[in-house]
Automatic annotation (TrEMBL):
Manganese among keywords: no
InterPro entries xrefs: Anti_sigma_zinc_sf (IPR041916)
Annotated region (Disordered), positions in chain: 1-20, 58-86
UniProt lineage: Bacteria, Bacillati, Actinomycetota, Actinomycetes, Pseudonocardiales
Superkingdom: Bacteria
Protein known as: Zinc-finger
Transmembrane domains' residue ranges: 86-107
Entry keyword set: Membrane, Transcription, Transcription regulation, Transmembrane, Transmembrane helix
Keyword set includes 4Fe-4S: no
Basic and acidic residues bias (residue ranges): 8-19
Length: 110
């Protein structure tokens, strides 16, 4: 800790840069009530004596957060190709041929 003089001329202790940075990282959880116990007391005491951190707790900067990714729609399944029609056509022709042959054979045998 370093010594500094407050506005009343009294000496007070301040937190060094690396320690201050560590405290600043915990300000968001402190301001939302996510810390308790000794950590809360440490942060509360620091915020009471540090104008910059007090301002951060009172008016937090907007948090940056990644924009949600847009989920692309599922690709539509390709339409299945129509089944070949030639088996149906050939089957129909075969049935027609059998009918014609049967009718012709029956007519001739009378």
């Amino acid at each position: 800790m370093e010594n500094a003089t407050d506005t009343g001329g009294r000496k007070r202790e301040t937190v060094r840069g690396t320690e201050h940075a560590a405290i600043q990282r915990r300000l968001a959880p402190y301001s939302t009530g996510e810390v308790d116990g000794v950590e809360w007391v440490l942060l509360h005491t620091h915020v009471a004596g540090c104008a910059a951190c007090r301002a951060e707790v009172e008016h937090p900067a907007p948090r940056t957060r990644a924009a949600p990714r847009r989920i692309p729609p599922r690709p539509r399944p390709r339409p299945r190709p129509a089944p070949p029609r030639w088996p149906v056509v050939c089957g129909g022709l075969a049935v027609a041929a059998l009918v014609v042959t049967s009718v012709t054979h029956a007519a001739c045998s009378w």
